[in-house]
Amino acid sequence: MSPSIGVPSVHELVKENITEVPDRYIHSTSNIDYDQYHQSDNSTADYKIPVIDVESLLFGDSVLADSELEKLDSACQHWGFFQVVNHGISSLLIEKLKSEIHSLFQLPPEDKKKIWQEPGDMEGFGQHFVVSDDQKLDWSDVFYIKALPTNLRNPQLFARMPLVLREALEVYSLRLKNLTMALLGKMAKALKMDSNEMEELFNDCSQNIKMNYYPPCPKPQQVIGISPHSDAGALTIVLQLNETEGLQIRKDGKWLPVKPIPGALIVNIGDMIEVTQ
After folding, report:
1. Segment 19-24 mean pLDDT
2. Distance between CA atoms of residues 171 and 89, nearest Å
């Protein structure tokens, strides 16, 4: 990802009790059709994002494992998204991480400045892909770090992060890598690939963690949390801090809300996997 120019914090803006959205955050209807993101329940009721039971996929008997593998294969081919349950990452770790992420975005401005993006860098607080001062902005704050491999980390940034968050991320990033490689191995099997070939392709790839915060908006119909996009990497694994149906995916010309399952993670097939296929 290319560096961005600095932008103000949306969270700090909201704390001023604004009643109107600043012009720079308003996406005109010529660029964004608000109605397409808020289709009626009747138009999307038949769409249910696949759910994969990782424990059954990896450790179930042959019948159960094969059934989950077929579901995984179908999810990858027809959806590009699925949720995973029984994924092996402890609920205690996840709840701890959620709490620390929430606390991170509640830090006072003077503490946030210590871990703000440096000029020409992507890591820290800020937004991405902002290249001009008149560019429309997303209604969100972002904190972004490179987590793995450790030699790619920004040691100064890591050292300035809250200690408990840093410790939770250390463990979580390793658990995510294990889960990612397990899923990629099963995808290889579904694609009739050698699992070792898939591991060679992705085992040493970088793992980046992006935390998004969407403050309340006085006129939400005028803004976009994150502009429509595809993810460039292999897999994106999404952990939602609550059960709000904010994430949407596009299928068959419709924007579908993702209904989070408590304890589940959401997996997005990235562009690199599509190229591999």
Report:
1. 94
2. 10
